[in-house]
Amino acid sequence: MRRAIAATRPARRSTSKAPTGAATLRAVASIAEAAALDVLAEDGLVAFPTETVWGLAARAESPAAIDRLRAFKGREADKALSILVDSPERAADVAAEWGEAARKLSAAHWPGPLTLVVKCGPRFAPGVVAADGSIGLRCSAHPVAAVLAEGAL
Q1: Which of 33, 44, 105, 125 shows a CA-CA span of 20 to 30 A to 25?
Q2: pLDDT of residue 25
């Protein structure tokens, strides 16, 4: 269900102190993040920042969302997609194999701009995982990407 947000101008000035600065930014960010998660839940696409580039997100479990993502990007069906995770623990849950090298690399470099390529089971929509069963997993340090990763998986 998409959340509707309505804003009206108050008839008279309130005597309570409105949030300013950082508190206002946090409130706006929270509303935007919730709306983005709603769009993803409806198989839509969401553009989001990471610490290095902008990403385009879709629900990895949804064939319709993955088809929409591929069509938008003009990406071939045989080219695997990367998955954004919110923690090394989530990555270990997603991966079919999460060995010592993956544990050490994720502990040293996540969150951050490192994509780990690991074996993955059939959890995701067709075309997300490469033909050889591998998938790229990334844990972004950007707070918006982290919220989307936590809420979407």
Answers
A1: 44
A2: 62
Token couple for 152: 């979407």
In what order do the strands lie in the sheet containing 82-84?
82-84, 134-138, 115-119
Q: Please name which of 91, 85, 66, 77 lies closest in space to residue 130, comparing C-alpha atoms.
A: 77
Answer for the pair 72, 45: CB distance below 8 angstroms, yes or no.
yes
**pTM recorded for the entire structure:** 0.77
For residue 11, CA distances in Å to 8, 14, 121 come to: 9, 9, 57
Is 106 within 8 Å of 88 (Cβ atoms)? yes
Cα–Cα distance between 145 and 34 in angstroms, integer? 12
CA gap 56, 74 in Å, rounded:
13
Tens digits of residue pLDDT in 18-39: 556 667 667 767 888 888 889 9
